[in-house]
Amino acid sequence: MANKTAVQATINGEDVEFLCEPHQSLLEVLRDVLRLTGTKEGCNNGNCGACNVILDGVLVNSCLVLGVEAQGKRITTIEGIAPPHGLHPLQQKFLEHAALQCGICTPGFIISAKALLDHKPHPSEHEVRHWLAGNLCRCTGYDKIVRAVLDAADVMAVEVSK
Amino acid sequence: MQAFEYIPATTVKEAIAILAREGEQARVLSGGTDLIVQLREGRRKVRAVIDIKQIPEVNELSYDPATGLQIGAAVPCYRIYGSPAIAAAYPGLIDAVSLIGGVQIQGRATLGGNLCNSSPAADSIPALIAHQASALVMGENGERRIPIEEFCIAPGRTQLQRGEILLSIHIPPVSPYSGGAYLRFIPRNEMDIAVVGVGAWVALDQSGTTITAARIALGAVAPTPLYVPESGAGLIGKLVSSETVAEAATIAQAAARPITDMRGSAQQRSHLVGVLTRRALHIALKRAGYKSA
To answer: Phi/psi at B121 (nearest 5 deg)?
Structure first.
């Protein structure tokens, strides 16, 4: 049963190959095999969103995906968000708005917000709250996170129009 | 998580052969939002997990106004509400698929999985029953079609026999002057399991005032999603009014067999069946083209 499978995937733009057992989740593979520990384990059952990644353009809980299912897929994790120098506007705005305290939920929120802005560059507040409903934060009360995402969307719109 | 063999099947035939050989020891994986949690928590033990997402047929999502909607068993929710044509034609189905979990669950979770998981509280099933949907199932001896209201037989158990796999769900074409709706009650705004869910579908005559057909289905008030044919039948031939809608809701309430658990009491659930049936019917009527005075 402990036969390991070789899996090829593109993670944050880089082609990688890893070995994993069928029962290892993508979250376990990211953290324990590939040492991409930016993705966090919260509830490990699809409720909290701390482990969110973007899989072939679709936002998913990496705890609910098997590592072997990543074969041939493109995955974006929190490590793939920032440009080579500096921060992504979402990261910058999370800092400016103090949209984090303990930080455990932050990678998941930034990934969810990134998926939202990729899909809808000018979301309403309602849409931001709807998209982030699957991410839990026990520190901020959410309001600062929502403001940070809306502000980042504005900044990114200006950057696009430049 | 418990160890198992992962089998990425590439044809329906291959998946059926494994299901026939392994029986209860094999389980189909589509979105995995229920199965992976069950395996991790030890609520389900299997020797083999058959991933069907590489099988072309079960990924098909097609809508034709003449033949209706076909949803492959491995099509995730977001693809359904992401299609403007499908969203416009079946708003009652869209109500259900867009409130199952959060966005990241909808990116993976499938209607096929929601159906085969056979939870009494599954959100999509009352909506599918209301829309007169059927399941296309294939086994070693060929295909058969099962009305959705007959598919679930107990919590976690379905009509599927050893060696059978769900291929797709079919919803009939949209008839003129018809509309559907799904509503559920949860104690918060998002991300919860239904305390009660109600799917409603109605068709009106050309004048838009008399009901010609209606279907009501309930969730989380019986061991399986519950079709209440008598509730819809009582509406046929009646002029639309608050009284006729209230009568249908009373019939639905009488059919519900709710229990008391951590999510709500039997009394609260019974009350909710009445409220939600009325509201779902009003939305369905509006979508069917009824203009209230």
So the answer is: -100, 10
Domain layout of chain A by residue ranges = 5-80, 89-161
Give the pLDDT of residue A3. 79
> How large is the ipTM?
0.95
User: How close does chain A come to B25, measured CA to CA in Å?
Assistant: 14
Which residue is it, tokens 């809508």? B63
Q: What CATH number was assigned to the domain covering residues A89-161?
A: 1.10.150.120
d(CA B161, CA B273): 32
pLDDT in tens, B138-166: 999 999 999 999 999 999 999 999 999 99
Q: Is the pLDDT of residue B293 over 70?
A: no
Q: Looking at the DSSP assignment, which residues form a beta bridge with residue B63?
A: B69
Return the ∠ at Cα A28 (arms to A51 and B113), rounded to 5°. 70
Rg (CA), chain B: 19
Give the closest-approach CA distance of B166 to chain A in angstroms.
21
Task: For chain B, say whether A23 makes contact (Cβ under 8 Å).
Answer: yes
pLDDT in tens, B57-113: 999 999 999 999 999 999 999 999 999 999 999 999 999 999 999 999 999 999 999
Give the Cα separation of B70 and A36 in Å (integer).
40
Check whether domain A5-80 has CATH 3.10.20.30, yes or no: yes
Q: What percent of chain B has pLDDT over 90?
A: 96
At residue A123, the pLDDT reads 98
Cβ neighbours of A22 in B, within 8 Å = 3-6, 49
Delimit the CATH 3.30.43 region(s) of chain B. Answer: 5-51
**B178-287 belongs to which CATH class?**
alpha beta
Taking alpha carbons only, the member of B181, B192, B259, B248 closest to residue B222 is B259
Minimal-distance CA residue of chain A relative to B36: A64
What is the separation, in whole angstroms, between the first and last Cα of chain A? Answer: 55
Q: What is the CATH number of domain B5-51?
A: 3.30.43
Residue among B225, B224, B218, B230 at smallest CA distance from B274 = B218
User: Residue B134 is encoded by which pair of tokens?
Assistant: 């059927």
Average pLDDT, stretch B196-213? Answer: 97
CA dist B71 and B171 (Å) reads 8
Cross-chain residue pair A64–B78, CB shorter than 8 Å: no
Is A47's pLDDT higher than 60? yes
Rounded CA-CA distance B250/B267 in Å is 14
Write down the CATH number for the domain with range B57-171: 3.30.465.10
Cα separation of A116 and A145, whole Å?
Answer: 14
Q: Mean pLDDT over all residues of chain B?
A: 96
